[in-house]
Design a protein that fits this description.
Elements (H helix, E strand, L loop, with lengths): L9 E2 L2 E5 L13 H19 L5 E6 L5 H14 L3 E7 L2 H6 L10 E5 L8 E8 L2 E2 L2 H13 L10 E4 L2 H17 L14 E4 L7 H7 L28 H13 L4 E5 L6 E5 L4 E2 L2 H14 L4 E4 L5 H10 L3 E4 L4 H13 L4 E5 L5 E3 L5 E2 L1 H17 L16 E9 L4 H18 L3 E3 L7 E5 L6 E5 L7 E8 L4 H13 L5 E2 L9
Parallel strand pairs: 3-4, 3-5, 4-8, 9-10, 13-14, 13-15
Antiparallel strand pairs: 1-2, 2-6, 5-6, 6-7, 10-11, 11-12, 15-16, 16-17, 18-22, 18-23, 19-20, 20-21, 21-22
């Protein structure tokens, strides 16, 4: 593997690659041998970091078709390195982290085979220690070790033991809900009489219906796509996907359910659907969990990514009396910023991205879709006892008249420098245009607030984290604002020959 491009496997703080043939133009680069070598490198990295020669590592996978072969190769190679391997089989990403702190015999580290919501032929690895997920720089170091290619045998052969950790993980949520609801007449079944649709998207989240909600008395009979199937035949397992959300919305409405919950493939993200079919994701999901957290921890800070709305800021700052702190897009960025604020003495209990990655301080700042769902199921059950609905918490959340995201492709090899120049130019233009004001509380790209003599709204232009793309987010707060912003921006972008701004002509919000 001397000519292998190991760096191509890095995707921020994750490993991502093509694991199966069959998609035109995509060459397989995440083979069993590659994954085995990455596992070996993780052993070397952990041994150096912990000064331990004998390690216990947990391995899990989502429902992808390539998962079983990759998992088998990974477990075998870890064992050859002298590792005591805990083979957890089908698992969620958050559960794999929990094997390092909550298992009867906590692991020194964990590896999760997943590529989140990416197409069926992709796969990847997330790495954990008891301190949390590896950072981007850690992945770079690990890939450098893999590229070196030196043998890393253990002093003696390790072992592989099959472990049903998901049952223990699910049982933890069962007890959290019982204790959180404290139902006065049926404590053990606090969800009795409540109908909940779970949509696992044929990923790893089906356990939440059968092992968490059903034992608590909930009617989960209308749940869908609980069976693991790495072809993802029904819809993309992604709460941000419009068709996926439409599917669970339809199921909630058609079955008269009280709540819908949709997970992504590896259950580190979630979104909800209210009993009236209202999708609760993005800004609404942030507002909902913020209302719950700020009720428990008044006046504290909520960290979000940069694309959240002005209405959400008003809701957190003025209505909930907390503090909204926008930060850079990327769930690791949001989580790390929340940790930084706490370290400097600013009380923060929630870090959440509009994608559905939600991390709570009480849960080790782990982005866990099942934990998020659990907190909101508890709130819903308690609200029902008082004759209220969960969505009553959103009554005062201002809604934009129109909103959309447009992705503008940069067609040059030095796309980062080119994109940053466009962002800088837009900031300079905003500083000289009457009615455009640069938002002072922005940590990414340039965010412009539009006001008189222009119509009220805002837009944010930023660089994509990984791709040659400038995402443009816009929100209109009065009629005609969206068209006005788009007309001005079309003129601005038209002078950049290496920018494909044609998507602006097809905007439908």
């Amino acid at each position: 593997m001397s000519n292998f491009n190991w760096k191509a496997l890095q995707n921020g703080s994750d490993i991502r690659g093509v694991a199966l043939e069959g998609v035109s133009g995509e060459n397989v680069n995440l083979t069993p041998d590659t994954v085995a070598r990455l596992g070996e490198a993780f052993v070397a990295w952990l041994q150096k970091r912990s000064n331990k020669t004998k390690l216990r590592l947990a391995v899990g996978m989502d429902s992808r078709l390539s998962g079983p072969d990759l998992r088998a190769a990974l477990c075998r190679q870890l064992s050859r390195c002298g590792v005591e391997v805990l083979d957890c089989g089908l698992a969620s990403t958050p559960a794999m982290f929990m094997t390092t702190i909550k298992a009867e015999e906590p692991a020194d580290g964990a590896l999760m085979l997943t590529a989140s919501h990416l197409p069926f032929n992709r796969n990847g690895i997330k790495f954990f220690t008891p301190e949390g997920g590896l950072e981007k720089r850690d992945i770079s170091d690990l890939l450098a070790l893999a590229e070196e290619g030196s043998e890393l045998p253990g002093s003696k052969a390790g072992s592989i033991k099959e472990v049903d950790f998901m049952s223990a993980y699910a049982a933890h949520f069962v007890e959290l809900i019982r204790e959180g609801v404290k139902h006065p007449t049926h404590y053990n079944e606090p969800l009795k009489g409540i109908k909940i649709v779970v949509d696992a998207g044929n990923g790893a989240g089906g356990f939440y219906a059968s092992q968490v909600l059903a034992p608590l008395g909930a009617d989960v009979s209308a749940s869908q796509f609980l069976e693991p199937d790495g072809r993802f035949p029904n819809h993309v397992p992604n709460p941000e996907d419009e068709l996926a959300m439409a599917s669970v919305v339809r199921q909630v409405k058609n079955n008269g359910a009280d709540l819908g919950i949709i997970f992504d493939t590896d259950v580190d993200r979630a979104a909800l659907v209210a009993e009236n079919g209202q999708a609760i994701n993005r800004n609404e999901l942030i507002a909902l969990i913020a209302a719950v957290v700020l009720d428990e921890h008044p006046g504290t800070t909520v960290v979000t990514d940069s694309v959240t709305s002005n209405g959400l800021s008003w809701f957190i700052n003025n209505h909930l009396k907390g503090r909204h702190h926008r930060y850079q897009r990327g769930y690791k960025n949001v989580i790390n910023e929340a940790k930084r604020l706490n370290e400097k003495g600013e009380d923060c209990w929630l870090a959440i991205e509009t994608s559905g990655h939600a991390a709570l301080r009480e849960n080790h700042f782990l982005d866990d879709g099942a934990f998020l769902a659990t907190k909101l199921v508890i709130s819903m059950a308690k609200a029902r006892q008082q004759g209220r609905k969960l969505t009553d918490l959103l009554t005062h959340l201002p809604q934009p008249l129109q909103s959309c995201e447009v992705r503008l492709t940069i067609k040059t090899s030095d796309f980062k420098d080119y994109g940053e120049k466009i962002i800088t130019d837009l900031g300079i233009l905003a500083g000289n245009r009457h009615g455009w004001d640069i938002a002072p509380d922005n940590f990414e790209g340039v965010r412009i607030q539009c006001g008189p003599p222009l119509k009220k709204g805002w837009f944010l232009l930023r660089m994509s984290l990984h791709d040659p793309v400038l995402p443009l987010n816009l929100e209109a707060e009065e009629a005609g604002a969206l068209d006005e912003m788009l007309d001005l921006l079309r003129t601005f972008f038209s002078v950049y020959e290496h920018l494909d701004s044609s998507a602006l002509k097809r905007v439908k919000c």
